[in-house]
Every structure is written in structure tokens, then in C-alpha cells.
Design brief:
3 helices, Gtp Cyclohydrolase I Feedback Regulatory Protein, Chain: K, about 50% strand, 2 domains, 5-stranded mixed β-sheet, 6-stranded antiparallel β-sheet, Immunoglobulin-like
Length: about 260
């Protein structure tokens, strides 16, 4: 489900002052990702073992590092979203002893008719260190770009490692259930308005005597109405102009995603 906070821009285009009133600010949001995995499957392949696990959708595959099953997902969030924190809880932990080392990913080679043999070498830092690899159950990174509808979005990519490996003691620990909580917030509307005012050639000021909500912007020699429309479209904000006795009133809406839960298979 979705709901639509909104704010009003009252543009007095016949005057040198534009008054901006914000009706509602963005709230902090939260997403919960719950994943369930099967028991790990261990298969002997020559002098190494291979690990597989149902519920994952990819593999950790870097040259000379242990090949491990992973789950990766990318979330599309409103443009300008700030990640406040990501926490992880694991359940049903299973520990298993391995008869051999986990197979390392081979070095990349240029395949030709004379050389098609993959050479497997082990990263000594990982295979000779008495620690579990990876060093945490999850990792993540963010980026910005366009989605399939050509809309600006913030993308959050999370990688979950339900299997972690200690080569020194030839042991894996596996989490059969993992719950991830993502806390985030959208860029405050005040910041969006500030960015709009700068790009549209407006002098943006807040009048303390009017309280925290009212804002004024001194107009420069720019076609403000057209400039604002261009910037609002760039932020993918819906807007509509309404003529009033006090000037043109602009109502702007921005979509806020409500709390949702996702469950991996």
C-alpha cells in the first residue's frame, strides 16, 4: 500500500516573494526482509568440496576465494533516500565439519584452443586465517540511477551470506533463517525545496518569525514557473497548478512507500 504526503507551493508570480508552506514532512521508513534456507549440501569434487544451499540465488565467486552460496537482492527506493541502518538477526544456526577444503574460484583466463584448463589457487589470507569468511552475514551498497520507467531512484543492493567458512578448522556455519531490518528515510522536503530553489535561480530563505513551516524565496530574473516544473519533473514529483485570488497555487505530491515485508524463497 502507498500513501501520499503533500506540500503546497503558493507562487505569487506577480510579486518578488514566493511563500512556501509545507503540510507534511517525510517520515522514517522500515523494510523487513525475511529469508529461509535449507540444510547445506556438500559434494566432493576432486580435492575440494562444493557447497550448495536451496533458497540462495547466486554464488560468491571471486578468484582464489571460497565459492559460497549467497542471496542477493536489489531494492528500488525513492530518489535521495538515506539508509539509516541495516540490522541482521540469524536463527537455526548449523555447524558442520568438512572433509576437504571448499573449492576456490579459478583465476580468470583467456580461453583459446591451446589453454582451456582452469587453475585453482587458494587465497592464503582467507584459507590460512582462523576466522570465518565472509566476516559478517550481510553486506550492502547503495547507488543511484534510472529504473525501467526512466525514473530516478536510489538502489539498495544487499548480499546475504547464509554459509560462512573457516578453512583452518575446515568448518562451516550456516543460518537457516535470516531476518534483515532496513531503516531509511527520504530526503526531507526542505532539502528538496532548497535544491529546487538553487537550480531554478531562487534565493531561498526561512523566516523565523513565521515559524518553522513557512518558507520564502526571493525571485530572480528567471521564468520561475517553467523552471520549477522542470525541476519537479526531474524529481518525479506530481504537481498541478490552481489559480487563486492570491496567485497561482502549486500542489506537489511525492510517493512514500509504506512499511512492507518481503519473504525470500
Amino acid at each position: 500500500m502507498k500513501y501520499w504526503p503533500y506540500f503546497i507551493l503558493c507562487l505569487l508570480l506577480t510579486s518578488s516573494v514566493t511563500t512556501v508552506g509545507i503540510a507534511k514532512e517525510a517520515h522514517n521508513n522500515q523494510k523487513i526482509l525475511q529469508l529461509t534456507f535449507s540444510e547445506p549440501t556438500i559434494t566432493t569434487n576432486g580435492e575440494f568440496v562444493e557447497i550448495d544451499m536451496e533458497g540462495t540465488n547466486a554464488r560468491l565467486y571471486h578468484a582464489r576465494q571460497p565459492v559460497l552460496p549467497v542471496y542477493t537482492t536489489t531494492m528500488s527506493l525513492p530518489f535521495g533516500t538515506k539508509i539509516l541502518g541495516i540490522s541482521c538477526e540469524t536463527y537455526d544456526i548449523v555447524t558442520e565439519q568438512l572433509p576437504l577444503k571448499i573449492n576456490p574460484a579459478p583465476d580468470p583466463i583467456i580461453s583459446n584452443e591451446h589453454s582451456k584448463v582452469l587453475i585453482q589457487k587458494m587465497d592464503k589470507k582467507i584459507y590460512h586465517t582462523d576466522e570465518f569468511f565472509p566476516d559478517s552475514w550481510i553486506s550492502y551498497h547503495t547507488g543511484a540511477g534510472l529504473n525501467d520507467k526512466n525514473e530516478h531512484k536510489t538502489f539498495l543492493t544487499i548480499r546475504i551470506y547464509p554459509v560462512r567458512y573457516n578453512s583452518v578448522i575446515d568448518t562451516i556455519i550456516c543460518a537457516k533463517k535470516i531476518s534483515i531490518t532496513i531503516d531509511y528515510k527520504e530526503t526531507p522536503l526542505e532539502e528538496v525545496l532548497y535544491d529546487i530553489s538553487q537550480k531554478a535561480g531562487l534565493n531561498y530563505v526561512i523566516l523565523p518569525e513565521l515559524g518553522k513551516t513557512p518558507i520564502t524565496a526571493l525571485m530572480k530574473d528567471v521564468p520561475a514557473k517553467k523552471a520549477l516544473e522542470i525541476i519537479l519533473r526531474a524529481y518525479h514529483l506530481s504537481f498541478a497548478w490552481t489559480a487563486t485570488a492570491y496567485g497561482d497555487q502549486l500542489q506537489v505530491r511525492r510517493e512514500i512507500l509504506k512499511h512492507t515485508s518481503e519473504e525470500g524463497k
